[in-house]
Specification:
Blueprint: E1 2-5, H1 28-38, E2 44-48, H2 52-59, E3 65-67, H3 89-97, H4 110-125, E4 132-137, H5 139-150, E5 167-169
Parallel strand pairs: 1-4, 2-3, 2-4
Antiparallel strand pairs: 1-5
């Protein structure tokens, strides 16, 4: 399985976004070409988060795309679209101290994200066809799957580097 993080979103600096459907930066075409060049030759089975920033990249990769909502980024609930600096420290700090099991107001835990991402990976692992799968998704999903593949605890997820447009082979 090959995991690809979406390219740079527009206007995301300092903003809490997970499910927020952001537009793509002006660098999209260049970044998409670099992602395509970093992938092995197809054909592959191509799946994607339904978020525009993932779907548009997946569509540029030249294979039919299946959208899977389980590949969506973490739901930050009431924090979506807020500046990180505007979230009260008394609410944000406890979440930061235990992001694995703490829940943003109205959102989901990182454990819940990991469970749905790992369910997708488990289904792919038992597919009878030989096609390699490329999943265009988000940093949270990639971190959850890479920690599982490496036998690391979820608490170590943010020690992993997952830049925009990065490719991760499991």
């Amino acid at each position: 399985m090959i995991l690809v993080r979406h390219t740079t979103p527009a206007g995301a600096d300092g903003i809490c976004y997970g499910r927020l459907d952001l537009a793509l930066a002006d660098s999209f075409e260049t970044e998409a070409a670099a992602v395509r060049a970093a992938l092995p030759p197809g054909p592959w089975r191509l799946i994607s988060s339904p978020a525009t920033r993932c779907r548009l990249l997946a569509e540029r990769l030249g294979q039919p795309v299946t959208l899977d909502p389980r590949l969506a980024e973490m739901d930050f609930g009431a924090w979506e679209g807020l500046r990180w600096d505007d979230i009260p420290r008394g609410i944000l700090d406890p979440w930061c101290a235990d992001f694995v099991t703490a829940r943003p107001p109205g959102g989901e835990t990182f454990t819940e994200l990991a469970a749905r991402a790992r369910a997708v990976a488990a289904e792919i692992a038992v597919r009878p066809d030989a096609a390699q799968t490329v999943a265009v998704t988000h940093s949270g999903v990639i971190r959850a799957l890479v920690t599982a593949a490496r036998g690391l605890p979820l608490a170590d997820a943010f020690t992993l580097s997952v830049p925009f447009g990065s490719v991760h082979i499991l």
